[in-house]
Specification:
Elements (H helix, E strand, L loop, with lengths): L20 H8 L3 E5 L2 E4 L1 H20 L3 E2 L5 E3 H7 L1 H4 L5 E4 L5 E4 L4 H11 L8 E10 L14 E11 L2 H21 L4 E5 L9 E8 L5 E6 L17 H11 L3 E3 L18 E16 L3 H4 L2 E3 L5 E3 L1 E8 H11 L1 E2 L2 E2 L10 E5 L5 H16 L4 E4 L5 H11 L3 E5 L1 H5 L3 E5 L5 E4 L1 H12 L3
Parallel strand pairs: 3-7, 19-20, 19-21
Antiparallel strand pairs: 1-2, 4-6, 5-6, 7-8, 8-16, 9-10, 10-13, 11-12, 11-13, 13-16, 14-15, 17-18, 21-22, 22-23
The structure holds adenosine-5'-triphosphate and magnesium ion.
Length: about 450
């Protein structure tokens, strides 16, 4: 993509309304535009990141055995009356009346909708386990929408719903989601820790929140410092291997704790020596619940056991804040110049900077390299503006592309380009061919 033909409305000034760094940087980098309180349009750069995050979530959900569907944003109030939540949910729910005076609502979540689908088609132990998920916009009329996309009113969520014959099997489905979350957030370059949670308005008796650690987090947590080094990415996972899945969950849970609101002290699931307890702040990016038969009973999702008995199906729900993650990743990865995207979610793989636009030789070298980078399968943003070098570098640093290739008249004399790593500023003089092959290697398999 040539920058002169792209739509990248970067701002020079820091927007006054933005209180946290991710919100400031998303506005300055031209990623989103507020439409009304807590509601945003996704501009091209922001939309690219959102889609890449979505894609990782899709891949990891399906790797764990969940099946994609797409349910509507608008739901019927009657379904929510059956579960009893229409009145319980309160003012966060946006209630709508259609032209026939029927009560509708903009879905804040989909437990009722998915349970209705399940009960319509499934009636036997042979139909379970099943895990169905979608990535869909939600609306919650939050009292205080703030921090940009981190606490919006309209936001994109992945929500999965599992259906099992009994509690033991439902807990395995729950554990599968927990492990898939560890992989999902790990792929985005995040350290996300699962922490036992209150089950809240959805109810039930088994719940974990996934928090990424960042100074601006809304939740204060205690963490076992040893576990901050726990790594996950390189492991082979067999999602059918119940013992392995359980072992991973046991290793990761219990060693993180939140402050007990009433006593202001760390409550760990397992013994953690005082000197290893560190405090941190966390941003919630995911939430998993097991809630048993809370919805299957009122909505009549019954299945026959092998013995012919009809029982209510056991369920859980599993959310990921897809749009919140865009802000969350920036909170976890930026410096005073701007965003630093992990390669797995970056909007462009590499930025190409022409130091002397209009100079025939430099232009030709840039055009050639632009073509080669694209031919190698890389997504390139070519800054072909007639601008000073300093302004071009500042834009690349602000929008956070992990790699930059710079071509100028001086380097061309010795046949080299500069390859710069955004994270450290480390720069290497390399031939254009080397730049292409190094970048292709870096992005292989991402
Ligand atoms: P919170 O405590 O932050 O309000 P929640 O418990 O209401 O979250 P869930 O209902 O579990 O959230 O939703 C699943 C995920 O959706 C959350 O973990 C979070 O990442 C995301 N999410 C929830 N509310 C919002 C919001 N207003 N804006 C953006 N993302 C949200
Ligand atoms: Mg909430």
């Amino acid at each position: 993509m040539r920058l002169t033909r792209y739509f990248l409305p970067v701002l020079k000034e820091t927007p006054a309304e933005a209180q946290i760094v991710s919100h400031r940087l998303m506005l300055r980098a031209g990623m989103v535009r507020q439409a009304s309180a807590g509601i945003y349009s996704w501009l091209p750069l922001g939309y690219k990141v959102l889609r890449r995050i979505e894609e990782i979530v899709h891949q990891e959900q399906q790797r764990a055995g969940a099946i994609p569907v797409l349910m509507p944003t608008i739901q019927s109030a009657d379904l929510w009356r059956q579960s009893g939540r229409y009145d319980d949910y309160g003012p966060e729910m946006l209630r709508i009346t259609d032209r026939h005076d029927r009560d509708m609502l903009y879905g804040p979540t989909n437990e009722e909708q998915i349970t209705e689908i399940f009960q319509a088609y499934c009636s036997s132990y042979r139909d379970v386990p099943k895990n169905l998920y979608h990535i869909q916009w939600k609306f919650r009329d939050e009292v205080r929408p703030r921090f940009g996309v981190m606490r919006g009113r309209e936001f994109l969520m992945k929500d999965a719903y599992s259906f099992d014959l009994d509690k033991a099997s439902a807990i395995h489905s729950y554990n599968q989601m927990m492990v898939s979350y560890l992989r999902t957030f790990g792929r985005m370059g995040l350290k996300a820790v699962p922490m036992r949670a209150e089950s809240g308005p959805i109810g039930g008796d088994y719940a974990h929140e996934f928090l990424i650690l960042a100074e601006t987090g809304e939740t204060q947590v205690f963490v076992d410092s040893e576990l901050l080094d726990l790594n996950f990415q390189d492991r082979e996972i067999d999602y059918h291997d119940q013992a392995q899945i359980q072992a991973i969950c046991d290793e990761w849970t219990g060693a993180y704790a939140r402050t007990d609101d009433t006593h202001d002290q760390a409550v760990f699931e397992v013994e953690v020596p005082k000197e290893r307890q560190v405090t941190a702040r966390g941003i919630e990016v995911g939430h998993i619940f097991y809630f048993g038969t809370k919805y299957s009973e009122p909505l009549g999702a019954m299945i026959a056991t092998p013995e012919g008995e009809r029982v209510a199906v056991h369920s859980g729900s599993y959310g990921i804040g897809v749009s919140r993650l865009v802000g969350g990743i920036i909170e976890a990865s930026h410096d005073d110049k701007g965003i630093i995207w992990p390669e797995s979610v970056t909007p462009f793989d590499v930025g190409l900077v022409n130091l002397k636009q209009g100079d025939a030789e430099t232009d030709a070298a840039c055009e050639a390299l632009y073509g080669q980078l694209k031919a190698a399968g890389l997504d390139v943003l070519y800054d072909d503006r007639d601008e000073r070098a300093g302004a071009k570098f500042a834009t690349m640093e602000l929008i956070g592309l992990p790699w930059r290739v710079t071509i100028g008249p001086r380097g061309l004399q010795s046949g080299t380009a500069e390859l710069t790593w955004r994270r450290t500023g480390e720069t290497h003089e390399v031939s254009p061919e080397d730049a292409v092959s190094r970048l292709a290697e870096t992005y292989r398999g991402l």
